Amino acid sequence: MRNYKFRLYPTVSQEDVLVNNINVCRWVYNKFIEYSKKGTVSQFDLQDYLMELKQQESWLYNYNAKMLQMVCVQMSGSQKALKSLKENGRKTGSLRFARYGEYRTFIYNQSGYKLENGKLILSKIGDIKIKQHREIQGKIKQVIITKTKSGKWYCSVTCELDKTQLPIINFKKVVGIDVGIKNFTYDSDGFVAPNPLNLKKLLKPLIRVQKKMARRKYGSNNYLKAKKWYQIMHERIASRRKDFHHKLSTIYARKYDVIVVEKLNLTGMVKNHHLAKSILDSGWNDFLQKLEYKTKMLIKVDPRNTSVECSECKTKVPKTLAIRIHSCPQCGLEIDRDHNASINILHKVIPSERRESTPVEISKRSVTQEAHVFRHRQFTLSA
Q: Catalytic one among 178, 257, 292, 370?
């Protein structure tokens, strides 16, 4: 399966129809929430209840049937997610009603859509201008229409590929990456990517917009205008962060076949209130997710002692976060602490006579794709 995301440019009348479709899906979703108050219901029960709603409210027949059926799937997914959280010991309540502005998507599944001549043709809506910046490969299975908080429209196209060719991995093209706050990435080959910290750069204009919104009467037109600018600022920050992650992950995926990173416990790291804002602003988890689906193999290792051990002689050299240079009293090695950590991360998957091999966690996607390589090829990695 492969997803493509394109920008939509509907006319004023088309935008009204799209918003109306979202409101109808939200109305059906809230009806399902009310229906589920009696107890947990299955997806088949929701589909039967949808047929009853159509008989009671005949105007529902004016909307695409597949679109309304996908609301059943969304409701079923919400119930499963809530159940999973409860099983993991999390304190959860019941599912809440979707308020106006919170529900911003609707889905056309299997049928009711077509892409041709720079137009997205949707059943019972019409032709919408789309910016298709690249060719679509495979058979289109689903189309998701989304409205952002700032008012932009996007189309996510899910395609099924006919054939997938498994990649051939060159295990000599391997690198260890250490992520940080000052330097977003510092790899074992010495490449450094400074951290843009997009939220920090746009913090002053964001504060100005927040002040404008706070001074205006809640719910007034001027308040809604200020709120829209507030949403635009946050979307701009997120877009810059996403653009940086995509560009950097593409550079690594094209240059290396195997990438070794740390298995970070971000939940525990953000409990440090001095660094929490910078950690969340960096978006390490999003970057690692992009690396996982772009690169041929991503290996996650235990982060223990990667910043403490000397990459040359394995002597433990404790240091605070303020000390940025690793200076080993045993062998005299002096390098950047992040560079030293990235080399140690790489060494955790390299066989060495001086240390035992450390178990690593390989992503499920990599295991399924690369299992044939391990069965038919013996390999060794060198530093």
A: 178
